[in-house]
Design a protein that fits this description.
195 residues; mainly alpha; 83% helix; globular
Length: 195
């Protein structure tokens, strides 16, 4: 199966899954592919919206039901958890709208908010607002990137497959790198606690 056929056949499901792990990267790739005509921008944005809202709501409810147990098991997250708690105390609703733009806190924030006793209805409302802002801004940036690449590389058809492959490799490498770094941090913390 050619890369083009792969994108046409599995582009939206891959986008949905990719956004769970590396949101911005996969939304940018999806919007770029929409500019190039492989995907449809409104559908890309709808898939991204559904994926990010579902992910954030899931982590919020995990936080409400098992959050303290999870946070206790991961002392290596303590500094980021404290940062989220300080931001929540100071900004509350603004944090819910903007946390997707805070690198390194995207998944942890709804989990911590869930542990705080925050209203599920308010979280849902402001999570929806934040998701719309995030999807539109990042989606349009990716679409604009596609347009800029078209201007820079007048004959982009020669290079677009390599660009898409490169972006996909970068996105996948980011996920793997994040996983490896977290694993190494946990091992280091476990070793230091054992001493």
């Amino acid at each position: 199966m050619s890369p083009e056929a792969l994108v046409l056949a599995y582009g939206y499901p891959l986008l949905f899954i990719g956004i769970i792990f590396e949101g911005e990267t996969f939304l940018l790739i999806g919007a770029f592919l929409a500019h190039r005509g492989y995907l449809n921008l409104p559908i890309v944005m709808a898939v991204a919206f559904a994926s990010t809202v579902l992910t954030d709501q899931t982590f919020f409810w995990i936080g409400r039901t098992r959050g303290m147990t999870i946070l206790t098991r991961h002392p290596e997250w303590e500094s980021r958890v404290d940062k989220v708690r300080r931001l929540l105390e100071k900004y509350q609703l603004s944090l819910i709208v903007t946390f997707r733009f805070l690198y390194g806190l995207r998944i942890l924030t709804p989990l911590v908010i869930g542990t705080s006793g925050f209203s599920p209805r308010l979280f849902l409302l402001f999570n929806l607002i934040g998701a719309v802002i995030w999807v539109v801004s990042i989606g349009l940036a990716g679409y604009a990137f596609g347009h800029a690449m078209e201007i820079i590389l007048a004959d982009i058809r020669k290079y677009e497959l390599w660009i898409v492959i490169g972006l996909f490799v970068i996105g996948t490498a980011s996920i793997i790198g994040f996983w490896i770094l977290n694993r190494l941090k946990r091992e280091r913390l476990t070793k230091s606690q054992a001493k």
